[in-house]
Amino acid sequence: MPSKPKNRGDSKKDGISVEACHAIMKGIGEMEAENMLEGMTLEEKIPLAFEGARRGSIEDICFVSSFLEKFPETHAKEAIAILCKIIDQLEIITPPQSPSARHITNIALLGLSRIHASSIAHNRHTYHGILERSWLSILCRMQSVYDEILSSSFPSSSNLPFDPISAMTITSVHSIISVFVDREEVLKQNAGAGDGLLELLFKIWLTPDALMFDNSLGPLSPRRRCLYILETILAIDSDSKGVRLEMTVKTVLHQTRWELDLATERYLQHLRDPAKACGKCPMLFSLSMAIIHRLGEEQCSNDTICKLNDNLLKGGLLPITLKFLSFLLEEIDKAPESRVFSEEARVRMIGLCIELCRNSVTTRNGPYWTSCLLDLGLLSVVARILSSGQLLDISRGYLWSMIALDIPRYFCHRFVISAALNAVKKLTHSGDIKILEADDKGDLWRTFTNLLLERTTLKMALDRVNPEPGRKCINCKKPDSEARIFKCASCMSAFYCSKECQTISWKSGGHRLKCSKLKEVIDMTGTGRPFDIFINIVALSEFRRHYPGIERRLAEMKKSGLQPKDLFITITLTVPPTIVLRPLQEETASAGGHLQDRSRPSRVNVARTYDCCPNKIRVESYWGGRSSTVHTTVYLPPYDQLYLRGNVYMNNSQMKDALLICRRPAVDEEEKIIAFVLDEVDKHMMDAREHFVPPILDDNKSSVTIYDYIEKKAASNQNILSWLKLGSKF
C-alpha cells in the first residue's frame, strides 16, 4: 500500500525534524546536547562531526549547525567554512531540487543563521571573508528556499498553510543576510552587483506573516534588518549603482509564476489599514510605499510593470495613499512621544505620497484616476498639507505642478470637470479654499479655478443641448435611476428606456425628422463619437477665441505662397493650449515611413477647404501614460460665428476691461503667444465674478458658490455655444 503523502504540518520533512530545526534556531539545551554528544566530550566529538559533515552525513551536518554557538572560536570558524563548503558542493553531492538537497540546504542555512550567537560573532572580518567566498552559492540556496514557498499560488495571504520547517528556514535567511550585509560598504557593493540579493530582499518583503516562524518586526529582529537593508539599497542612486527595481519585479513575478491579482494582493498586504500598519511597523509601511512609488515612476517602462501599476490602482492604492496622508497630518497635533514618525521622516513620506498621487494622474487612463482622487478629497488634503508647512521645496513643486498643469489638462473631459467642481465646492464650504488662495503660489490656484470655471460654462451649455448619458427617456421621461437608458444608434443624442419608447418617439414623437438633422450637425462638427464630443467643443472654442492670431499667421504664410488648402491645423489641449499651423507637405512627410497610431486620422485627406481657413483641425488630447495622446478630427462648419473678431489681446495687462479673469492665451510650437479675443464664455465668467455675492446666513435661495452661480447661468444662457447651431437643428 502506498504511503500517505505528508501534510505541511508534519513533524518531519525531507529527513529533518521540526524539533531539530527548533534546536538549531533557538539553541540546544543540556539534555539535547548530551544526547547528540553520545557520551563523548565536545572536544572528542568535534573532529568526528566535522569529518562526517564533509562526507555529507545529515546527522553530523545537523550537529555542526546545532553546536555552532558552543564551539570555541577556532572551531566556529572551521564549522562556518564546512557549512559554506557543503552549500558550494551541493550540486555535486546531489541534484539541487531533490528532497535530500533541500533538507541539507535547510540544515546548513539554519546553522549559518547562528553566527550572531557564536564565539566568532565579534570577529566580523573573519566570518565575512568565509561567507564572501561562498556568497553566490549561499544566495542561490536562499533564493531556492523562497522560490519554493512563494511559487505556491495561494488565493490570499490570509489563508496560507503554516509549514514550520520552511518558516524556520526563511527566518534563517533573514539572519544570514543581516549577518553578512551589515555594513554600509557591503550594502553599496551589493546594490548593483546583479547577484540576486535585491530579488531575495524583495521576496522577503513580499512574504506574508503567515509563513514566518518568527514574524517579529522589533528593532533587533533579523527580518526588520533585512527590510532596512532593502530600504537602504533602494535609496542608493539607481543610475550609478545599477539598481533596476522594475526588472527585479518582473523577475520575481516570473520566478513565482504569480497572477497579477495575487501579486497585487501581496504588494498591498502591508498597506490596507495605514494607522494600524504604522503602529505595528512604520518602516515596513514606508518601505512598501517607497517600492510602489518607484514602480509608478517608471510609467509604462515595460508591459508587466504597467499592468501591475494598473492593478495596484484598481486594488485601492489611491484611498490608501490619501488615508496615509491624513494619518501623517494628524500626527502633527500629537505629543512628540506619541508620534510614529520623526518630523524628517514625516516630511519625506508626505512628499512621497504627493508624487504617488501625481504618478496616478499622469499614468495611462489618467482622467479616470484623476476623477477618483478628486472624489476622495485630494484638494482638502492638499489644503491641510499647505497649512501644516510639512513640505520640502521639491515636494511643493510636484504638488503645484499637479494642481496647475497635470489635472487641468483633463478639463476637456466632462466627468473630470464634474469631480473637480464637487471637490472645489466642498473646499469652499469648509473654508479651506482660502488656504490655497493665500499661498504664495496662489496664481497657480487661480489658473486651476479659472480654467475650471471656463470649462464648466462650456460643459453646462453643452449639457443643455447635448446631454451626457444617464439622462431621461425623451418619450416617457423616466430617469436612468428607474430604467436602463440607451442612446439612439444614429444620432447618439436621444435617450430611451425601451424599444417601445424608441418606436413611439420615431413614429409620432418627431425624432424621425430631428435624427437626420442632428446627425448632419454632429458629423459636421466632428462630434460623432461620444468621448469626442466635449473634447472637440473645447478645441473649437479655442480655435474661435484665437482666430485673430490664427488669421495673422495665415496671412504670413500666404506671403510665402501657401494657401489655406495647403495648411493643416493642430490644436493640442495642453495648459495653455497649443495651436500649430504647418504646410500640409510637412505634416505628410513627418508621417512618412513610420507606423501611425491607429487613432490618428489620415493626414492626407484634407484637400477641401474654405477660402479663409483649412477645413479640418486635428485635436490632440492627453489620456495619461507615455504615449496615450488621442487624435480626433474636427470638420470646420461654414459658420461665420466661428471666425470671431473684436478687440485683440496678447496678455492680461492689455485687458483693461477684463481684469476680473486670468486668461492664459494659446501658444504656437515656439511657445509664442497667439492673439485672442474675449468670447461669450469669458464675458460670462467676468459677469459671474462681478455680480456673484456669497449668500448670507440662512439664505437658501441664492447660489452657494460662484461655481453654482456659473452653472445656473450657463444652463439658461442660450447665447453660449449658439455658434454650433445645435439649437436650430434639434
Automatic annotation (TrEMBL):
PROSITE patterns, alphabetized: ZF_MYND_1, ZF_MYND_2
DNA damage found in the keyword field: no
Entry keyword annotation includes Zinc: yes
Keyword field: Metal-binding, Zinc, Zinc-finger
SUPFAM superfamilies: HIT/MYND zinc finger-like (SSF144232)
An annotated Gene Ontology molecular function: zinc ion binding
Protein name: MYND-type domain-containing protein
Domain MYND-type residues, every copy: 473-515
Domain of life of the native organism: Eukaryota
